[in-house]
Amino acid sequence: MYASPSHLPQEARQKIATALQGVLADGLDLHSQIKVAHWNIKGMHFASLHPLFETFAVSLANHNDTVAERAVTLGAQIHGTARHVAKTSRLPEYPQDTTRDLEHVRLLAERIETYLTGLQEGRKVAEQQGDVDTVDMFTTIITEFEKHGWFLRAHLDR
């Protein structure tokens, strides 16, 4: 761990940084999967889903940057190459031959749920270590992605 302006002890910062790295890997993977859906979508819901997926991707890219910068602020070094993400992401692989609109919706809704689980686990680590700033960051992302998941599930009528 590098020197940090954080008041937290190094051991706490390490635990939080490890959680942040896991969330970042999931977030980078989810971002690429959302873009695959955005590029390949076909069907009667194209006009509404194509821009919606782009909104999700832009939002997630910003959050990924925030997560990475929080980990670096705590003294960590971030690993975020495609190869690293492929080895460490908790998300399942995205079926590359998917084109149908509602199939993309279902697949992304499932992956957002997995991403949310990682965020919630990360928030718990930050809570246990007394890092209210990271807790707040996780809560902001969770709130937004719960809404994104709801938007997707509303298309599936369940």
Please characterize this protein's 3D structure.
The structure is a single chain. It is built from 5 helices and no strands. With 158 residues, the protein is mainly alpha-helical. The longest helix has 31 residues, at 10-40. Helix content is 75%, strand content 0%. It is elongated and about 55 Å long. The model has no long low-confidence stretch (mean pLDDT 95).
* Gross geometry: elongated
Counting H and I runs of at least 4 residues, what is the number of helices?
A: 5
Can you count the beta strands? 0
SSE sequence, one letter per element? HHHHH
Q: Assign a percent range to the helix content.
A: over 70%
Radius of gyration: 16 Å
> Which percent band covers the strand fraction?
under 5%
Unreliable stretches covering 5 or more consecutive residues:
none
On the 0-100 scale, what is the average pLDDT? 95
Structural class, from secondary structure content?
mainly alpha
